[in-house]
Please model this.
Amino acid sequence: NLKQELLLALRQEGYLQASVEVTKSDYLLLTGQLRLDVKVRTKDPIGILFVGNTVFSEKELLESLKIATRTVPFSPNAIDTLAREINVLYQSHGYYFATVVSESLPSDTTRRLYQISIYEGPHTSIGALTIKGNTHFTTGEIEIVVETKPAGFWLFRNWSPGYLVQDQIDDDIAAIEALYEAAGYPGTKASFE
Model:
């Protein structure tokens, strides 16, 4: 697809806000040629500088932008979204305490510059999961609805790396609260510490 190839070429050069539209196509019978009118909007190129990353390459960190298949041009809030997705990437690989911060940098060219600073923190895994304050269900009944697990093999499951991921913790809290509500205890609150 010509449109996709043009977009990819532009975005690989930093034109992340580029859009390509084929506005007209004509097939000329006499010459056998195809004439295309293509409208290209580039806007300012964008540069992203990564600082502090040792675990992942820049290419791996940029994968969440989906440059090759992205249909929506890069917007100003996309850099913050990228930083959040990088943080989730670190958590899902055992860096729960990773901190990812994005900022705009001054530039003396038309290229807009952003810096994503990463503090990876220690590589950690869950040694044990303790459930406190529960008086209605057995620990096993709660562990069934909780996806966060200590590192190791689990019955009917593959190896669990035992990593803490904030989105999964939030889902686990909601699952515990739903379990209590289904048992007739509405308003039960669970938390993680």
About this structure: Strands lie at 19-28, 33-41, 46-51, 99-105, 112-119, 152-154, 157-160.
